[in-house]
């Protein structure tokens, strides 16, 4: 579930009606209420992963949710492969490949899973498929297989599997791919 909550934070509240105009703010809720809503969803539905459940600067809500559910919480907007942000997150957009590898190793050392992710404005270059396999991340986020730049990544993963043999889908084993 990719929430992208930074997109609907307004005046310290999460506006669940942010796409509808006019909007009187009647559906704006606190971070605590949003966290409670996620917990209800996790109990009710087979959710194994929530991406960007809170604003990228709402550290306390991130840590509260992470400690209260036994699912993967992905910090795409929170961390965006920034080693300094990852170091900060362990204690309380752009980078080089070397920094990405360092960020992945630091994350794994902290007991986190790693998901290699595309960014908007992608090209048909399929390097992130190789990076995902090379890091043994077990997960890649490259969007629905509906456009050539996305298919290029999935096709590269298939070529890698043909060469290396059967691979295991992370699924519920996402914490230890």
From TrEMBL:
GO terms for biological process: glycolytic process. The keyword Lyase applies. Pfam families: Enolase_C. GO terms for molecular function: magnesium ion binding; phosphopyruvate hydratase activity. GO terms for cellular component: phosphopyruvate hydratase complex. Its EC number is 4.2.1.11. Pathway: Carbohydrate degradation; glycolysis; pyruvate from D-glyceraldehyde 3-phosphate: step 4/5. It is an enzyme of class 4 (lyase). Residues 1-177 form the Enolase C-terminal TIM barrel domain. Keywords: Glycolysis, Lyase. This is phosphopyruvate hydratase. It comes from Dovyalis caffra.
